Automatic annotation (TrEMBL), chains A, B, C, D, E, F:
GO BP term (any one): riboflavin biosynthetic process
Name used for this protein in its record: Creatininase family protein
UniProt keyword Hydrolase present: yes
Gene3D superfamilies: Creatininase
Alphabetical list of InterPro entries matching this protein: Creatininase-like_sf, Creatininase/forma_Hydrolase
Cofactors, names only: Zn(2+)
Pfam families: Creatininase
Claim: Transit peptide is one of the keywords in the record: no
Length: 271, 271, 271, 271, 271, 271
């Protein structure tokens, strides 16, 4: 069986795997509107694609994808499914605990939903490491950070929700899922809406304050759901974006898998 | 786009869909040990296969699969990932609410994890219907009940966790996922363990009391994780089991989609 | 003191009891409408009657009755008192934990509220056995299963909420509580309401799907609250139904009290 | 039907009742050790006796008793069953809400468990009145306050847990439940244990600080569980104590039932 | 550094402190309306003043003040900030646990918010002592009890929310915070509102029942927010009230700091 | 009364204030170790100082400080007091709701605890804006972002926990609170500990992944608690850092106070 997916393996194969490896990748996405061209699953496909390709390159397993996340700000667009933050924290906590119990002491959460999921992921994993599993380490990797360098090189416009980079990545990695005839130059002038205090480019320097909007506001200021223009999306752009991030992720994973401390080193009586 | 999966559609396509349809199918499974031959994803594959085929036949959409469930009694076998019951209830509650907000007033939860997930599904959906969405109806379909008639005809032995019927179904519907060389006649004499008060056959009449076991007990009494023998599993058996259940499910869905009350009919001021 | 009720004993008598016995019976009911003839306490009286008679026959103690349960679907009828499911799970968890701490390693929950309470009871007791008390075993007994055989022999019509069997049982065991002049042939054609997918007979084979109704729907389709006809109820019918179930329960309890494993056998360091 | 117990009535009788009356009494007790002579149910019997007699005198209904409360400080004595405080708050919240939904706009909680249950009762009922039912009023009556005057006249010693007054009350109202041959002069010098800062007499002036003990401490300083001596308990003492409190309770209830505001008077749009 | 405030010390100074001392004082107040003359912070200033002066006299540390409490019944007056009871319990639980982990085995909670905060404080601290920290003792001191004797001597009228005693105390201890030109003789006749069953004087004997009001009722019956008259408030009255309470508190603390059991003495394996 | 602190005002003054202003500042800090020189209150003092000075310059009110936050990773150093993340979310939710109910439709949370508190603040405020108060806007300002520009100009070394910038700010704004004789060049090579994947400079570009450490690891790798060197701290450095941030904050607040939408503009029936 050469699937990288944990769910395709038997428990005996997993038992064998953890005799020599410590790591597992957990893809975390969302099911939410991505404008007229992006399917609802964009964020999960991004996470799955990164996880699967990095796993293949490094010989690791991938846990089942988390298809749902902190998406209530998109909830005015039908098809969006959202978890309350407390639910999301509970789900991640249970996954991290289950995997650590099995012996996965290096867990890499690949988040495809960018900033929205990060607070819940951070809170859940910090507390699992403090209270339940000092012997296991938990890393969060996100295109926002993984792709910072390459995005700076290749993006042609501000990149935000439904933008050219994320749609290109899906076009490259999961052909025929983006509606290419619906790619659009519709975008939202977040600087104008937020007096310069809301950043239009997720790969920019960020604002000096954080202001969130809610679902009704989003539907009002972005009737199509596209916050960035996507009409320059292309398979080639997606390939460059995706491969660069997979490369960064693989480098990290190799370091993480072979990491021996001081983090995660606990005295015998703590486990 | 002719995918049945919601996540492959854009929000505008979903908005269009709900102008003429009311139903959506939600596959709910688990990631847990299924003996030496069954991959960890058996229950989710069962739910996905039933959901996808019924959706194709009836023209419906399918929500992203729920890969995790109430599996802690299998937690002594590595690779099993479990949600606490309170987490599971929260996840189902949030999904049902999100979909009802979008206008899906007929929701069919296809559970592949049999009895273990049923209490959480039932509690979540009953309270959503009572307190949040009186206008939406929620049905739970499970192989335990969908397959009762056909199982009686075709099964050759008691069917329990990791048994011939569920492995056959995966062999038929998702080729190459079952380790056919590991099919086994290992089984557990639950009647002996439970003095006749624990049923060995999930399709039998059931016991007069309910007694649950925990993860350590299971690992002790079933070292391989196989509770029923699976050595008679075959693609053909799986096809008969699966198709019969898809047939039952389609009949139900057609009735449900066109159902006009009295359940789910609320006065204007309640919505 | 020859009361079977725990609350009538002193703590020293309980301390003495658990030097030789392991079991306790916990009656769980509800306070909810039972049609024009049934008092609100029917389910609790059923549970108390079964528990008390089985306890007397086997020399066991009975915990105080749980008078409230998952009854919100009856909440449109005044006098019904309901717990949210999360409250119900918390109550059962606390009871099971308290009793196990005292040394009651065999606990039998006798539920008089049939299917409605079962999910909460199951979730609570499964998690207590997994996480808190591997050394204690928890069984759930319910008229739905205890009475399956005898009901098949004696019932004269489909038996559902407020039906002839449960009212007869109260008439026999708690004289003068049923309003015999209000026994009724009012019943609800659940098959018609649910297109054949909702079973009219709780002792029948069940449906292939589970659909729940809510409180407003119930008040609309069953203005009297009687879902099954009760006009054939009689003390004699109640006696046959009750005694048969007490017999089954006693047989089970004797086995359970003397059961020595493998379930519930834990190594010293787990307790 | 002349039972005062709600559970003995049908929903139609309750519907009739609330056309002319507003009040219901809810007895709240505990199941916990009461020394060598007191049965575990003392607190619940006290609450039930007060509730039943006041109901009979005033023509009111009584809800099913709450048999369990905040008793973990007695948990080192077997037979004690305790709810976590969060569970207790949830139970009281659900009861108050259910009864207010039915139209009971005057609810009297008669607590037999004295100070231990009061914080949970207070928190639950305050929030129900603030957030859920401004139209309903909730009163808490407790022997600590109801019996202050009469206790001052009749008690012969400091009265604390398991003392002469509460055991006398049960001896009078529920004959044969107290083990009269086990009445004891064992008591605990709480003043010595707590440097004068823990009061030995629940009917005294109280301390200037509140210090709580836990279950293991109690078992250590009070091996018999009797904190006050009970050897002077008698049926006659119980009668005087009980009847005086019933009298106070009846006077209160008559005022409460006929109370017309300003508390509980809400404008139409708030209900 | 001779600040008594914990937050002004470094962790190394705290580490040194707990080699010789066990106690810490935690001031708990509220931010809520106190009539036309009292600033919103009255209750917190009361708690801080008592804590600081007692700490100075006894050489102890004071934790940061808890500025928010159970104040929803004042929420109809702007500026009031309230915690839900469950939040308040969580906050106190976390503080008590943090401090006990650091080695503070004697914790004195000085509550300035009188009865309103007491149930939450009691529930939180009782459960911390039972389940988390049997080795630490927790005391609650409140002006209601600390000041009972002196209030009886010096008060000139019934003292309730916004009354002369608490405003005097702030006038004395925190000059210029009370609006002396807005002192008022406005008061509420709670006896009339509550038929004699709601006490107008917090230092009186109390009622035989407890009835709570909600925020809208308070705004209606007390348009100024002043429940007691405050026009007799004076610095001198405040000084007498405050100093007497500080004296009582110091006496208690000295006893508590040197207390050696039996409460709080646990065997080695429990810690 | 010219205090900027809400707690120093009466409710009538607040009622007057909100007839002409919409904004309030909420300082949020922590009580946690800050190395040998920093008092436990550093983060709260930073938040209070920024809030107070910005409020004075803009004529706004400041809510009482939140003294406790997400600090468990410092919990191995005594004196640290931490809230669980769920408690922190509840506290912020209750504050935001209380203030919005009073009419504060622009709330600025000034966080002195940098990254650690941000996830909880973000989750709480996002959900309040989505579900409870669409009419109110919530901004989070943090030295990490407010001070990015000025830090780049003035810092002389990597700045992390206990570093020169934050201690300088306290030295300037709250004289005599930093132990200047304990300023230290002790620092931790986080790059070495985390293979280059943990950033040593909070004002740098950040890592491509997020890895958290727990309390025991911190105590092991940083015995003094100082993660950055602080020996270059000075009042002058603090002044420049503080004043620059106050300037940024004031500019933001002026824009925010006068902002008229589209965010926060809701139709009448939503409020």
């Amino acid at each position: 069986m050469n699937s990288v997916w944990l769910a395709d393996h038997t428990w005996q194969e997993v038992e064998e795997y953890i005799t020599s490896k410590h790591s597992i990748i957990v893809p975390v996405g969302a099911t939410e509107q991505h404008g007229p061209a992006g399917p609802l699953g964009v964020d999960t496909y991004v996470a799955m694609g990164l996880a699967e390709d990095a796993a293949r390159a490094t010989g690791l397993l991938v846990a089942p994808p988390v298809w749902l996340g902190d998406s209530f700000h998109h909830s005015a667009f039908p098809g969006t499914i959202w978890l309350k933050s407390s639910t999301m924290i509970a789900v991640i906590t249970d996954i991290a605990h289950s995997l650590a119990e099995a012996g996965f002491t290096r867990q890499i959460y690949v988040n495809g939903h960018k900033g929205s999921n990060l607070p819940s992921l951070t809170l859940a994993l910090r507390e699992v490491h403090e209270y339940q599993h000092p012997e296991a380490l938990f890393a969060i990797a996100d295109p926002l950070h993984l792709g910072r360098a390459v995005a700076g090189e290749i993006k042609q416009a501000a990149e935000h929700h439904g933008g050219a980079l994320e749609l290109s990545q899906v076009m490259y990695r999961y052909p025929n899922k983006v509606r290419e005839d619906k790619l659009t130059d519709a975008s939202v002038d977040l600087e104008a809406i937020g007096g310069g205090y809301i950043a239009s480019d997720l790969f920019g320097q960020g604002s000096i304050v954080e202001i969130s909007w809610n679902s009704r506001e989003e539907r009002a200021f972005s009737p199509s759901g596209s916050i960035s223009s996507s009409h320059t999306a292309s398979v080639d752009l997606g390939k460059r974006f995706h491969e660069a991030m997979v490369g960064e992720l693989c480098k990290f994973i190799q370091w993480f898998e072979s990491y021996t401390g001081p983090l995660g080193v606990v005295s015998e009586d703590e486990i």
